Amino acid sequence: MSWLLILLIGLPAAAGAALAVAGAKVDRFAAVLSVVVCALVLATASAASALRPSLAAPFLAGSEFGLSVDALSALLLPAVAGVAFLVLLYAAASGIGTPARFHGLMLIFIASVLVTVTATTLSALLFAWEIMGAASYALIGFHWRESRRVSSGLTAFVATRTADLGLYLAAGAAMAAGAWSRDAMSLASLDSLPGPWRDIAAAGILVAALGKAAQLPFSFWISRAMDGPSAVSALLHSAAMVAMGGYLLLRVQPLLAATGWAADAAAGAGAATAVVLGFIAIGQQDLKQLLAASTAAQLGFVVMAAGVGDAAGGAAHLMAHAATKSALFLAAGAWLAALGTKKLADLRGAGRRWPLLGGAFTVAVLSLAGIPPLALWATKDNILTAAREHSFPLYITGLAGAVLAAAYAAKAVALIWKPVLRETESGYDTEETGSRKVTPWQLVPIGVLAAGAAVSGLLVLGTTGDTVRGVLGSKAESSPLELAMSGLLAVAVLVPVWVLGGKLPPLPGALSWLHMERAAHIVLVRPVLATARSLARFDDAVLSRGVEHAAEKVLHGARSLDRTDAALDHGTDAAAAATSRLAGRSAITDHTIDGAVSSLARSVRRAGAAARRPQTGQLHHYYVQAAAVIVVAAVLLIVVR
Amino acid sequence: MPEAILFVVLAVIAVAAGVAVFRTDSMARASYALAVSFVAVGLMLLQFRLEYIGVITVLMMVMEMAVMAIFMIMFMGMNPALMPMDMVHSKKLSAGSAIGLFLLLTAGILLADWPESRGPAGGDLTASLGEAIMEPKMLVMLVISPVLFATLVSALVLANPRGRYSTYPLVPVEDADDDGQGKGQDHSGDSAGHAAHSAHGMDHGAGNSDGHGQHHGGGGHQ
Amino acid sequence: MTLELALIAAAALFCVGLYGALSQQVVVMVMMGLELMLNGVILAAAAFWWFLAPAPDGQVLLLVVIAAMTVEMAMGFAVAILLHRSRQTDMTEMASDLAG
After folding, report:
1. How many CA within 13 A on the CB side of residue B148?
2. Burial degree of A159 (CB within 10 A; 0-12, 13-18, 19+)
């Protein structure tokens, strides 16, 4: 069965690499190929969820490359694959410059996400985690000709990568504790590490997951990441990459529970993010920035679920949010392509112009707000119930976050259905030239995702909810009273804000995301660069100067040796000249030697001529010679023996 | 005693005949002398009770002398019996080396310390020779047989009048021509052979007495 | 009939043959000299056999010598014929191609 896993991961990886490498030559069929490949991936993911394969290959010393589909990943694999398929369908329908590079990178990203979801060892997880980060950098900065987009990609990449150091720390702790045993770095055995190593591993993983999921204090990068194409935002920043942060925490939830403080920290961070980023979302004027802030806020709920031990609720919320947020991002992308703007004020009346698109957008927004009977209402309540059982202040904070979610959802949808004003048209085409068209193929994925957003509530309700809870081992179940109360609360907040046209008083600092990015620059970036510069100066002044001094000394030594050698040569030459002069003076020596040599040559020549004389050709001569030789030999033999 | 005398007589005859081979003027006589020498040696072998080998020697040598006489006639001309000849070169050197070697060998024979006899010869020597060559000394037979066969073949090949390289004639030369011409060719071949013999410097008809003087042209070594 | 006597006779034959081989100009006469030398060898071998080791196996050597003599005769006459056919001569001086 492990071939299923190999197929699942190898297919998008190979197709993506091929497309990315082949480049512009395959632009014509890149989109079709990627959609087909993703459809196959979806089918394979569904099969893998049903069949639960596993695979282990030797990788590093002390750790295997382990993949397997267990209960948690069986839920998520089809969800992630489905969202990816629909996003790629949208991207193929709406078109993008250099499609081969885009689809190649997306497929590679999808492959790394699939490995992350199915990883069972830290080494496999790290491997895929890093590839995800690299692919996200390339995808966010896809339109590289605009330097601001590239620097956004770099910001996102460096922020998440800095957080990833936590994962390396956890891997190091696991290896130090496990001492090279075979499953030292498997995720399932992290909660059984001995004392301090366990705390270090939990801290590391927590930091990495918070960074990836854009929780506080890392949330600034998701704001910059909105500079990427809409399809990228729809996949990475709703369903795949940031979700993986939450997923990681859900997977190592036993470790968090075993280390008491880590679970509390996670829950607290998640709740705080839900509230703070809810405020930030309300203060946004750009649709994509609002959606980005809401992504971080909703993922705060998932992180809180991991902290309180509600794996089923967290997973369900993850999946429902994936469907909802990608539908919202794709709709924003469609409006951006059609109208050339993504400012909320300039999108006034867009719903009336394209009713189907507006309808799908509205359904997804209502789900985001938590209106019954849509998905996020039920899943959020499940998490809040588990939080209430854990600690009451946590529950109140979560509830505040839910209220804020309703508010910003209403803000997002408020102006869509209002009639177009005269000055609205002047705001069009500010970001790019709009095409004033929304093709049906763009609508299909948005519609499917909106439908998913509507019905995914079943993951926590009714019999399916019971199955999911049983499989994942969670016990929290919201009572009908709670559900009704939260639904009422959401409606109560949504309606007034909608009617008001989304005009809410902005909070100070909300628009600029509480200056988190500047803070990160001051706290981290500038000191690091300053240290680097001073180290460089040290190297130039001290180290290389030392090397240069040494080189100079060597050169000195070589020159003096050269002078000595020249002197020796002089001496030798003089001696040789003297000797030859001396030799030339004695002609006798010359004569003697030459004479000896020539007389030797002459005697040899004579001997050679003499040696020819016995060869007369006459038979009797040969006989005489033979007889003489034989007689001499016989006499010698007799005498000697 | 009588054996010893017979032996000495035979030895003297053998040596004298050997000397006579080279002293005589006639080719035929030289061959006969050699035959006599061999017969004497064969008889001496019979004295040694080497019956088989002695008889073989005698028979072989007689045959060989007949063959040699034929060759003499073929090479030397029509009147072999009466021509004086003394065709020698480097007479002094060869005589000197021969006498010197004889003295050396005699000295060696007389001075050498010959070992004792290992016992008398017994039994039927011929039969025992046959058995020896058939059983322990079979290798000798095996080697000599192919060597003799090879000698046969190679001698024929070398002596073939057509030579080794000329092609086989489709029609025999004699049948293609007239009988008279064929015979004439044979005669001319003979006369050519005679002419060649005369090139040796020997006068057949007229120069019998000058046979000594005239030798072939090519530097006679004296 | 002592060993020495027989050997001296053999030596005499050998040396006469040597004289002939060295001094004769006609090829056939040279071969006669060689014959005499082999004659002497046969006699010497027989003398050794009779006086020192009269075993049946020793006679095989004599047979070998006789066979060698036969072979030598045959080849010698064949070569003499060739010489005569190609150079119309039977003198050894005419066959001095090995000179030099």
Report:
1. 14
2. buried
C23/chain B closest Cα distance in angstroms: 5
When scoring B90, B91, B106 by the number of chain A Cβ atoms within 10 A, the one with the most, hence best to mutate, is B90
Which of helix, strand or coil describes residue C53?
A: coil
Q: Considering only residues 42 to 71 of chain C, which have any Cβ-Cβ distance to chain B shorter than 8 Å? A: 42-43, 46-47, 49-57, 59-60, 62-64, 66-67, 70-71
- Helix/strand/coil percentages in chain A, nearest 5: 80, 5, 15
- Kindly list the domain boundaries of chain C, sorted by start residue: 3-94
Judge contact between A164 and A130, C-beta under 8 A.
yes
Yes or no, beta carbons of C96 and A617 under 8 Å apart: yes
Q: Which of A491, A315, A275 is nearest to A398 (CA)?
A: A275
CB contact under 8 A, B155 and C59: no
Q: Does C98 touch chain B (CB under 8 A)?
A: no
- pLDDT-based confidence at residue A191 (cuts at 50, 70, 90): confident
With 0-12 CB in 10 A as exposed, 13-18 as middle and 19+ as buried, what is A489?
A: middle
> What number is the ipTM of this complex?
0.88
pLDDT in tens, A96-105: 888 889 999 9
| Assigned token pair, A503 | 């005009």
Residue type, A624: V
The phi-psi region of residue A229 (left if phi > 0; otherwise alpha if psi is between -120 and 50; otherwise beta) is beta
| CA atoms of B186 and B193, how far apart (whole Å) | 10
Spatial separation of the C-alpha atoms in residues A108 and A115, rounded to whole Å = 11
Domains of chain A by residue range: 587-640
Would you state the structure tokens that stand for residue A37, as one six-digit string? Answer: 């490949």
pLDDT at A141 over 80: yes
- Asked whether residue B183 carries a pLDDT value surpassing 50, the answer given is no
Q: Would you call A614 helix, strand, or coil by DSSP?
A: coil
Give the residue on A whose Cα is nearest the Cα of C24.
A620
Q: In the structure encoding, which two tokens stand for residue B94, read together?
A: 């060869």
Q: Do residues A345 and A411 make contact, with C-beta atoms less than 8 angstroms apart? A: no
In Å, how far from its chain's centre is CA A51? 28
| φ, ψ dihedrals at A57, nearest 5° | -130, 145
Distance between CA atoms of residues C65 and C72, nearest Å: 10
CA distances from A560 to A336, A556, A570 (A): 76, 6, 15
Contacting partners of chain A (3+ CB pairs under 8 A): B, C
pLDDT, tens digit, 9 for 90 and up, residues A578-615:
888 877 766 667 778 888 999 999 999 999 999 888 88
| B115 vs B152: which has the higher pLDDT | B152
Angle between helices C3-23 and C27-52 (to 10 degrees): 170
Q: What does the alpha-carbon distance between residue A549 and residue A560 come to, in Å, rounded to a whole number?
A: 17
The model's pLDDT over C50-88, given as tens digits with 9 standing for 90+, comes to 888 888 888 888 999 999 999 999 998 888 888 888 887
By three-state DSSP, how is residue A66 classified? strand
Whether B53 sits inside 8 A of C11 (CB atoms) is no
DSSP bridge pairs for A65: A57
Residue found under tokens 């209402």:
A377
| C-beta neighbour count of A467 within 10 angstroms | 12
Share of chain A above pLDDT 70, in %: 98
What is the per-residue pLDDT across A499-512, written as a single tens digit (0 to 9) for each?
Answer: 887 777 777 777 77
Quote the CA–CA distance of A323 and A83 in Å, as a whole number.
Answer: 7
Yes or no: is domain C3-94 CATH 1.10.287.3510? yes
Using only C-alpha atoms, chain A has a radius of gyration, in whole angstroms, of: 41
The pLDDT score that the predictor gives to residue A353 is 84
- Angle (deg, nearest 10), helices A99-118 and A2-22: 160
Q: Are A34 and A64 in contact (CB under 8 A)?
A: no
